[in-house]
Amino acid sequence: MRRVDAYHALTVVAPGIADRFRPGHFVTVAVGGPRTSTLTRRAFAVHDVKPDYGGTVELVFTVRGAGTAWLADRRARDPLDLIGPLGRPFPLPRDPATCLLVGSEYGAAALFALADALQQRNCRVDFVLGAASSDRVFGALRARRMAETATLTTRDGSLGVRGSVVDVLPGVIADTHADVVYACGPMSTLSGVTAVCAEFDIPVQVSVEELMACGIGLCMTCTVPVIGDDGVTRMTRACVDGPVFRGERVRFDDVGTIPFDAHGAPGGDRAR
Amino acid sequence: MRRVDAYHALTVVAPGIADRFRPGHFVTVAVGGPRTSTLTRRAFAVHDVKPDYGGTVELVFTVRGAGTAWLADRRARDPLDLIGPLGRPFPLPRDPATCLLVGSEYGAAALFALADALQQRNCRVDFVLGAASSDRVFGALRARRMAETATLTTRDGSLGVRGSVVDVLPGVIADTHADVVYACGPMSTLSGVTAVCAEFDIPVQVSVEELMACGIGLCMTCTVPVIGDDGVTRMTRACVDGPVFRGERVRFDDVGTIPFDAHGAPGGDRAR
Amino acid sequence: MRTYLAHVELPNPILTASGCAGTGRELAPFADVTRLGALTTRTITMAPRAGRPTPRMAETPSGLLNAVGLQGPGVDVFLARELPWLAERGARTVVSIGGGSVAEFSALARRLTDAPGVTALEVNLSCPNVEDRGRVFARDPSAAGEVVSAVRTAARYDLPVIAKLQPDVADVVAIAKACVDGGAEALSMINNPVGMAIDVDRMRPALAAGTGGLSGPAIRPLAVKCVWQVHAALPGTPVIGMGGVTSGRDALELVLAGACAVAVGTVLFHDPYAGHRVLRELEELLQERGFDRLADAVGLAHRPSHRTDREESLP
Amino acid sequence: MRTYLAHVELPNPILTASGCAGTGRELAPFADVTRLGALTTRTITMAPRAGRPTPRMAETPSGLLNAVGLQGPGVDVFLARELPWLAERGARTVVSIGGGSVAEFSALARRLTDAPGVTALEVNLSCPNVEDRGRVFARDPSAAGEVVSAVRTAARYDLPVIAKLQPDVADVVAIAKACVDGGAEALSMINNPVGMAIDVDRMRPALAAGTGGLSGPAIRPLAVKCVWQVHAALPGTPVIGMGGVTSGRDALELVLAGACAVAVGTVLFHDPYAGHRVLRELEELLQERGFDRLADAVGLAHRPSHRTDREESLP
Ligand SMILES: Cc1cc2nc3c(=O)[nH]c(=O)nc-3n(C[C@H](O)[C@H](O)[C@H](O)COP(=O)(O)OP(=O)(O)OC[C@H]3O[C@@H](n4cnc5c(N)ncnc54)[C@H](O)[C@@H]3O)c2cc1C
Ligand SMILES: Cc1cc2nc3c(=O)[nH]c(=O)nc-3n(C[C@H](O)[C@H](O)[C@H](O)COP(=O)(O)OP(=O)(O)OC[C@H]3O[C@@H](n4cnc5c(N)ncnc54)[C@H](O)[C@@H]3O)c2cc1C
Ligand SMILES: Cc1cc2nc3c(=O)[nH]c(=O)nc-3n(C[C@H](O)[C@H](O)[C@H](O)COP(=O)(O)O)c2cc1C
Ligand SMILES: Cc1cc2nc3c(=O)[nH]c(=O)nc-3n(C[C@H](O)[C@H](O)[C@H](O)COP(=O)(O)O)c2cc1C
Ligand code: FES
Ligand code: FES
Description:
Number of strands of chain A: 15
Pfam family, one (chains A, B): DHODB_Fe-S_bind
Cofactor (chains A, B): FAD; [2Fe-2S] cluster
Binding site for [2Fe-2S] cluster (chains A, B): 214, 219, 222, 239
Helix content of chain A: 10-25%
Family (chains A, B): Belongs to the PyrK family.
Oligomer: heterotetramer
GO molecular function (chains A, B): 2 iron, 2 sulfur cluster binding; flavin adenine dinucleotide binding; metal ion binding; oxidoreductase activity
Largest sheet of chain A: 7 strands, mixed
Largest interface: C-D, 56 and 56 residues
Bound molecules: flavin-adenine dinucleotide, flavin mononucleotide, FE2/S2 (inorganic) cluster
């Protein structure tokens, strides 16, 4: 357990997960210990895996509520109950391409393993990382070291450009001639990023976050309206069918609703 | 936190409790930590108080279920939430007397502070301590050291006399010419001790144990049928009106029932 | 942070729940009972009652089962020894009453109505109706309405009558409406739903009585639902919310659902200081959210929702 | 550890609860679905359903609120793609069905009754009745009985019909009796009681749908009570117990109360291996207590109590 600015970084020995990990995967963690009243697992993107001790997994998180507070309290060698790797990872380009990685707040954490994988495939990598304030911009140093360019933004202007990652995106895309964008962060950010990419007509892969009760496809609580290959919008599980989707397929404006034209939307049948 | 044979001994810095402690008092402990699903406090007799660190309180317990398991896991300097001292302590004889202290299992723990107090009043103290097996006889050494006599019993015969504290009681009372008996242990033991004392026509003070949701007189879950000074049986709270009662006042055979002649027993009025 | 139960003003909205604060005396070492919004007595019955055999409690996940059986000394001793102690100190006292028949409820109301120190009467409808094979009044709109109206008639016109409801009914709104139609000025909810635990070692019910009332945080979602539904149907009726409140956040949840006062029950067993703590926490939360008056927050979660709400909650 | 649902034998008494095991495929990486007593499908509806908007879940103390809204692809896709996967593997499948009218339930029963791999039909009575202003069938004995009897008539005579009940009703025994009179061979309980949570930061209901179903250990005392009461009234009717089971001890609690099978629901979200774990733990506990057959433990806590019981539990 380490502190990294506003974040906690937690390294867990988990060879089974480290082995099968691909960038974009997440894990779920049981929180609260025995007899806890907090029932649901918490989802975290895998920040990094290392070969130490047979395979370790690193998570980066902010304390939000009870579960993350408990997690931040763990001491070395405390056992932890993880399930993973989960979800559909980021698809990688077949041929070398220029890839722009956009991360907001802790969303940035998921992008570094992706950057490694892309560089191994001889892709050019650029970063745009943003947050509310400088201490919440995750991985700025590492991004600067490894990428062609790294543009930083903060809402309060305490680091880099004042504003959001979306504000600087058109400029960065133009400068880098990005072929594809990968984005991680809150829905509103992903929505903005997707809109910019549509303007530039370049593909964008987004990793979405929706409340998850199970993380493994059982419960149907994590659905997002996503347009399928057949053009039909379905309430699609973020945990097993995502969390990575093609940005233009996600109906960001309709998140939190059932779009009237979604498959099975209310109208005919009315059972609960 | 120490292990003493089958027991855990836990020392807590609690000057406010140590200050006001008298033998027979108990405390309640919140278990499970933040967001636990275990709501009720656990009651423990105070084994000892010491002046260190402004005043410490020592508890002795066996692991029974979730709460005591959690307690056994505490490490040095972990904070603990205690309320106490609670209950009515053992009444002490005005004049020097021969006092026989009878403890079964962890019930023995509550008797040593009492023995100290009695000896300070120039009482003679004898012990009868018993348990299922030798590792569960608490405080045998200390009893031997401090008391005139210490008779030990185990159900399996692994230490002292094979049998229960009740079995040896008539002999010990006869030998020691006890003026008064104090007893701590399960209801069945207290019932047996009280019956023997009745035969010898000597007073007995028993400390009873009933499930307690609050320990401070709010909830009425801890009641025991006790005969009052006026001869009327009332469902009496063990936590604030006890846990120490005169043995002959407790209707042991009727514990777990509402005696038909108890004040307010069903018959006339029937609201829930 | 004043609040009103009908026309009666309370200095603050935190009450104790019936059966969870003893006679007031037991709480006194931990809390100044006069600084509570009000103290609710355990349910007072006409005759003394010995209650149920022990075991009377069992712990369940985030919950507590109890089967105390309304143990108490009866209304005469209550009036002679318990109420005066509270009245002398100036505590506001809501007297909970219970009976097995409409007649018993109205007799209790008559006995209590002129006693000094009674702030309101709370009608505990979770009592078995001896005239209906023990079915509790709270489960039947007409029986509930009848009891309330008898109490309303028997009590002095200016003494508010509060009806206390239970969540395990087919339609809590129907019961609430019947009570208001019967003359209840306020509603109290929720009383314990009936639950049960089995001791798997003894292979017996954990409680001597078999079933018991479930309380504690486990039931808070049921309480929020009842308060929400009843406030939606009867926005003008003051509601005392209770059920698993342990913190100011929990109290605020009930306030936003529609409660204008909140009672603490089971939490007192764990933290007898909880009354004042919950009040302080609630005040802070309201302040942080820019409320000057409690009344402005009551039922606020009912306002029509905006699409931007979700974005606002994102980091 | 065999058990029987009516005449259908199950190799063991641990099932999955409806809506908690996906289509079976999602559970497969964690559990051999063919080694479960049976897998219960999520409730299948006639037409495809998109369900409710998100947020669809909220955590409560020892509980989970959900408002998924029976999202699913409809019975045609279920028969074409989901059931065959289970049937090929030889899993026993209880198909849960839901509709807004009696006609819809019986149409579903007709569609499903001859499909290979259907072990039993579970009638989810917690569906709003469009013909009764959305009141759920489970809350009204006559509506519940009518649905069950329509399903019983439409289904093949040898396919057991299980009625699934909800605890937040005035009298669960009355509903159970109506279902058995309507032809239900077994009962499943409990479905989620309705609950609610308010997000005190957004000052809005935590679920987009407002209210939701409460599940998890918080509701176990309500489940034990329902199973107990129904087993006492209808000792010959097999009961599938569920509601907050997380361990063999919890399962045994329901068995002792009267369940001959036990379903795991919410616990799978936390521990997808729970089905087999609970089975193993239950087997061990029964062995420790000297039971050779599950049937000998079913309802055992109902036997008349002896005065010595309490002493036995002392150390
Ligand atoms: C696929 C995925 C990847 C994630 N990766 C990260 C990460 O790398 N670092 C990080 O800090 N956070 C990440 N999150 C968010 C993280 O799951 C929440 O911050 C965490 O669950 C909050 O738990 P809590 O108990 O502290 O908060 P509480 O608010 O007390 O949680 C209450 C409930 O809401 C759920 N919840 C609350 N906020 C969120 C949220 N934003 N997303 C999903 N569920 C939520 C919790 O799981 C829990 O069930 C990720 C979420 C998802 C779905
Ligand atoms: C006045 C008093 C003094 C006590 N002194 C001691 C002591 O010095 N040492 C010691 O080891 N134990 C003592 N006990 C018993 C101790 O309280 C229980 O062992 C403990 O509560 C068990 O908690 P658990 O969570 O481990 O068990 P669980 O069985 O999981 O507890 C479940 C619930 O039952 C209650 N409970 C279970 N067993 C008992 C019991 N025997 N008495 C009261 N409540 C119980 C718990 O408080 C809890 O509410 C005393 C009890 C009382 C009433
Ligand atoms: C031990 C105990 C005793 C109770 N006695 C009464 C009572 O006498 N009358 C009554 O109306 N409610 C009684 N209740 C119910 C509470 O007043 C309250 O409605 C319920 O417990 C929900 O609140 P809580 O979860 O905060 O405890 C009792 C509850 C408990 C736990
Ligand atoms: C996410 C979720 C979805 C559910 N969907 C259904 C359903 O489709 N049909 C149904 O009859 N019950 C459904 N239930 C209820 C469960 O089958 C079960 O009756 C209830 O949750 C109690 O068991 P548990 O506490 O073990 O989850 C659902 C429960 C949950 C948590
Ligand atoms: S979180 Fe359960 S299906 Fe996605
Ligand atoms: S434990 Fe609550 S009154 Fe005794």
